[in-house]
Amino acid sequence: MSFNYRRIIIKIGSNVITRADGLPDAERIAHLVNQIAEIKRQGIEVILVSSGAVASGRSLISVSEKSDAVAVRQLLASIGQVKLINTYSQLFEKFKLLCSQVLVTKEDFRDRLHYLNMRNCLEILLQHNVIPVINENDVVSVTELMFTDNDELAGLIAAMLNAQALIVLTNVDGVYTGDPKLATSSVITEVNDAGIDFSSFVSSGRSQFGRGGMITKSTIAQKTAKLGIAVHIANGTKENILTDVLANKAVHTCFTPTKKASGKKKWIAHSENSATGVVQVNEGAKTVLVSNKASSLLPVGIIKVISDFKKGEIIKITDEHNKTIGLGLAEYGADKARELTGKKNQKALVHYDYLYLQG
Questions:
Q1: Strand order, beta sheet including 253-255
Q2: Is the full-model pTM beyond 0.90?
Q3: pLDDT per residue over 135-170, tens digit each?
Q4: pLDDT tens digits for 337-358?
Q5: Count of CB atoms within 10 A of residue 252's CB?
Q6: φ and ψ at 8, to 5 degrees?
Q7: Which of 71, 147, 196, 251 lies at a CB distance of 3.0 to 4.6 Å from 152, suitable for a disulfide?
Q8: What's the N-to-C CA distance of the chain in angstroms?
């Protein structure tokens, strides 16, 4: 049984398209483009999230080892991004396909207006049969502004564009029951239980060139699957991996999607790092919120406003032990919330439609 997707995000890790010597693997990139062209021929929309700018930069310029590591990364990424997008452009051209470059930072996801502008841009590219090639803007993204890695970025894009699936290509066959190098470890082919703690058996070693290890991938995959998007983690160094994954012919890890979530909820779900305001709720409110019934957060259940927020900002909702139980869009500011704290029959601080519960 093959997967019948209409719109997919493909994330190509740096470990897939970088050779052992740190330079780009031109043959591998070309082979992946051939497969994407075939997938496009099947009428599937493809959005590409590709690492590899730093490796591309390394092939063009040599830098003294003494230089500042962050500055070197910026230098290589800035030069390499041009080469990377040109490589894709020339390869797609052979199939009469157009690609475009979209560089983003974490800031673009924090602000609802930026977020919608970016979504509109990607939607119009797709309408015109263009393949967006997305990467983090390493030139301005440094340390705290960075995504965990491009896996996180790909998850955000998948949620933003209501994709049916996210395919994450790495240099192993998927998530293993232990260290992939050991004969006793095997690939977990299907994950449908949101409660698995991968850190207990996934090795935390990072790939040679990537920032994020398999634990990061698994966490993001679980979060994305919970939003109704299937996630496939597969080995991008294998021949025909993309077409084989879609035809369900390759050994890999598939995170089966659970429920569908609205676009607003998808945005909220990925905004934990940018939530500044915090409200604490009592056990009664917590029980109501985490029950499967549709419930809004009412002032009567709030114990206190821990940190300030404005109307329209995303806030964290914590229980009496300061554990985050959810995120939501504030219907009014912190001052009004303080005024109404504990009072009955008041307007909800977070409406159910704009409430995302974790766990």
A1: 99-104, 131-136, 45-50, 7-12, 165-170, 230-235, 253-255, 190-191
A2: no
A3: 998 777 666 556 767 898 999 999 999 899 999 999
A4: 999 999 998 999 998 878 888 7
A5: 26
A6: -130, 150
A7: 147
A8: 31
